[in-house]
Amino acid sequence: MKNQICILISAFLLTLAASPMTAQERRQDGNHRKWEESMRAEKIAYFTEALELTSEEAEKFWPVYNKCEKEKQKAFDSQMKALRSLDAAVKENKSDNEISSLLKTYIDSLDKRNEIDRKYIPEYQKIISEKKVAKLFLTEEYFRRHQLHKLKKGGARPTDKQ
User: Fold this and answer.
1) Which of 52, 54, 90, 154 is most exposed by smallest CB count within 10 Å?
2) How many CB atoms lie within 10 A of CB 102?
3) Selected residue with higher pLDDT from 55 and 151
4) Residue 93 has what DSSP assignment?
5) What is the mean pLDDT of residues 25-53?
6) Per-residue pLDDT at 87 exceeds 60
7) Regarding predicted confidence, which is higher, 117 or 12?
8) What 3-state DSSP class applies to 153?
9) Helix (H, G, I), strand (E, B) or coil at 128
10) Residues 107, 83: contact at Cβ < 8 Å?
């Protein structure tokens, strides 16, 4: 039990150190920031337990995972930008050529996430077993579903007043 607490604390500290605040994050209100920190801590605990990370694995795993997540966030931002552009073009009744080009951009942005995952699998394999790499992808999906379930049940959201 003590070992798991040490792992969670070190993983949490590594996560905080690996994710410097952006200007946008500094502008966010206190409630949103608290929610993000709470979500991050919950994710670390959830993943560390599900993957059964040793302290040595956690020390190496979290910096790689955080780097991967930053890349995925950038890809997601591009995906949302492409989706908004496509949506606007459809609503504005743009030409088929313009819509086709925007659709291609959107589809390419969807592919980017899979490329990022493929890129990081060998990095994870250097740190954790193949089984734990597989569990990582399962755990990401389970955690996402867990969070959606919490939101449906009325859990705290970034805009909720605490």
Assistant:
1) 154
2) 20
3) 55
4) T
5) 82
6) yes
7) 117
8) coil
9) coil
10) no
- End-to-end Cα spacing for the chain: 31
Do 76 and 112 touch, CB atoms closer than 8 A?
Answer: no
Which one-letter amino acid corresponds to residue 12? Answer: F
87 dihedral zone (left: phi>0; alpha: psi -120 to 50; beta): alpha
DSSP string, 11-65: HHHHHHHHSPPPHHHHHS-HHHHHHHHHHHHHHHHHHHHHHT--HHHHHHHHHHH
pTM attached to this predicted model: 0.72
Q: Let me know if 53 is exposed, middle or buried by CB neighbors in 10 A (0-12, 13-18, 19+).
A: buried
> What is the phi/psi pair of residue 55, to 5°?
-65, -40
The span from the CA of 86 to the CA of 103, in Å, is: 6
* Host H or E run for residue 68: helix 55-91
Task: Please give the Cα distance from 156 to 33 (Å, whole number).
Answer: 12
Locus of tokens 């949103």: 32
Residues 121, 116: Cα–Cα separation, whole Å: 9
48-86 pLDDT, tens digit each = 999 999 999 999 999 999 999 999 999 999 999 999 999
pLDDT higher than threshold 50 for residue 37: yes
